[in-house]
Amino acid sequence: GDSVTQMEGPVTLSEEAFLTINCTYTATGYPSLFWYVQYPGEGLQLLLKATKADDKGSNKGFEATYRKETTSFHLEKGSVQVSDSAVYFCALSDESRDDKIIFGKGTRLHILP
Amino acid sequence: GAGVSQTPSNKVTEKGKYVELRCDPISGHTALYWYRQSLGQGPEFLIYFQGTGAADDSGLPNDRFFAVRPEGSVSTLKIQRTERGDSAVYLCASSPHGLAGANEQYFGPGTRLTVT
């Protein structure tokens, strides 16, 4: 079945460092890809999404590009802030499977001032 | 506007008891999903409703779990004979589903269930 694999955390960086969180997926169809974020004490929020190959999703300085050839959707940010500390989930969904979301295990990010 | 709400926010129950978890989706959203998030894991799909009917319940772990959505809006997840392994955060999400490209799901804050 479909699945998502993302790098294990925790990831600890200094403020203003460059961030990459790797994500790869396995899918038989043509899924949409997502990054969700869970800030401490808050609910799950959609950070960005891409619905087809070569699309780039972006939000709050974060970017991810849907790479069909490498089945990847890596999350990047050029300069992280302390407020970016959270758990990040890579995920996919497929319209042919009722859009139920399949999540990765999450990557905890700590940003040090 | 109002988002997805879930009640209670926390529920502590004894092993063997019955619990009900409630989800109020965004008004007008026809699709409703339940997920379960265990500690240190990503959310896992449980069940999906389109309107009043359960279109896909393949994620329910066993027959102790059941969910309803009788009027196509509020949904209740019911767990019988709770076990310690049921302890998790139960998330509800809704979506306008059916509109092209409108497959984004909006998540509620979750109900943290602890079975002692």
**How much strand of chain A?**
over 45%
Order of helices and strands of chain A: EEEEEEEEEEEE
Rg of chain A: 14 Å
Helix vs. strand class of chain B:
mainly beta
Mean pLDDT of chain A: 94
Helix content of chain A: under 10%
- Coarse shape of chain B: globular
Can you characterise this structure?
Chain A is 0% helix and 50% strand. Chain A is mainly β and 113 residues long. In chain A, the strands form 3 sheets. In chain A, strands 2, 5, 6, 10, 11 and 12 form a 6-stranded mixed beta sheet that branches. In chain A, strands 3-9-8-7 form a 4-stranded antiparallel beta sheet, with no helix packed on it. Chain A is globular. Chain B contains no helices and 11 strands. Helices cover 0% and strands 47% of the residues of chain B. The chains are: A mainly beta (113), B mainly beta (116).
Give a short summary of the structure.
Chain A has strands at 3-6, 11-14, 19-21, 23-26, 32-38, 44-50, 56-59, 62-65, 75-77, 86-93, 102-103, 107-112. Chain A has 113 residues and is mainly β. In chain A, strands 2, 5, 6, 10, 11 and 12 form a six-stranded mixed sheet that branches. A four-stranded antiparallel sheet of chain A has the order 3-9-8-7, with no helix packed on it.
Which characteristics define this entry?
heterodimer; A: 113 residues; mainly beta; six-stranded mixed β-sheet; four-stranded antiparallel β-sheet; 0% helix; B: 116 residues; seven-stranded mixed β-sheet; 47% strand; globular
Please outline the helices and strands.
The complex is a heterodimer of chains A (113) and B (116).
Chain A: E1 3-6, E2 11-14, E3 19-21, E4 23-26, E5 32-38, E6 44-50, E7 56-59, E8 62-65, E9 75-77, E10 86-93, E11 102-103, E12 107-112
Parallel strand pairs in A: 2-12
Antiparallel strand pairs in A: 1-4, 3-9, 5-6, 5-10, 7-8, 8-9, 10-11, 10-12
Chain B: E1 5-7, E2 10-13, E3 19-24, E4 31-37, E5 44-50, E6 53-56, E7 65-68, E8 75-79, E9 88-95, E10 106-107, E11 111-115
Parallel strand pairs in B: 2-11
Antiparallel strand pairs in B: 1-3, 3-8, 4-5, 4-9, 5-6, 7-8, 9-10, 9-11
